[in-house]
Amino acid sequence: MSVQYRHRRLHGRRPSRTRQASKDRFRALWVLVATTGMRRSELAGVERDLVDLDAGALTIEPTRVVVDGKPLDEDGKTDSGRRTISLDAYTVSVLREHLAMVDEERKAWGRSYPSHRKVFCFEDGRLLHPDTITRRFNRLVDRAGLPRITLHGVRHSYATIAMDNGINPKILSERIGHSSVGFTMQTYVQRSEGRDKDAAAMLARLIIKLPSNPET
């Protein structure tokens, strides 16, 4: 294999990797999970009336779960599951584009379009089966030639990145819908090497400044 060919394989494919999700119909869903850490059932259950793009806020309440292989719509099970979270400007802009597309499709299909208010659905208004979200995500990962990461793994990564960048654990716990900060810390935040570097440096500075006392 020539050096030039290897270069094309390594670098020429990079743009197509980054465009896989952006070209997908459910681009807004992938952005939402990446910027909020929402669960699959919450993504499938998002309703239009609970999205306030002007305020940059999303209320997470109804969920769409799988029971005996069939999708079932439910209300949020707990107070922590029912929550309102803030959305960043980029996520808001992507959701605006998505909802505009859905509005056009609704008009095109006319009376045959279902009367639900779900944000994520197919062109003809058919609702998403939660398992379909998982399968579609896996295909995108495979097409991009990336190491396999699960959809739930994105939620883990979201929590870890948040913690590594100093997001208050309580705020993070509330955003991802946990009942306690302890559960968030123990279960969903992956161990990240080097997170304690700042603490080590600070403690060392304090210790070095202390007067030496051989008797202690």
In short:
The protein is built from 10 helices and 5 strands. It is mainly alpha-helical and 216 residues long. Strands 1-2-5 form a 3-stranded antiparallel beta sheet, with no helix packed on it. Strands 3-4 form a two-stranded antiparallel ribbon.
Walk me through this protein's architecture.
- The chain contains ten helices and five strands, in the order H-H-H-H-E-E-E-E-E-H-H-H-H-H-H.
- With 216 residues, the chain is mostly helical.
- The strands form two sheets. A three-stranded antiparallel β-sheet has the order 1-2-5, with no helix packed on it. It has a two-stranded antiparallel ribbon with strand order 3-4.
- A hairpin with a 4-residue loop joins strand 1 and strand 2.
- The longest helix is centred in the middle third of the chain and has 21 residues.
- The radius of gyration is 22 Å and the shape is elongated.
- It starts with a helix and ends in a 7-residue tail after the last helix.
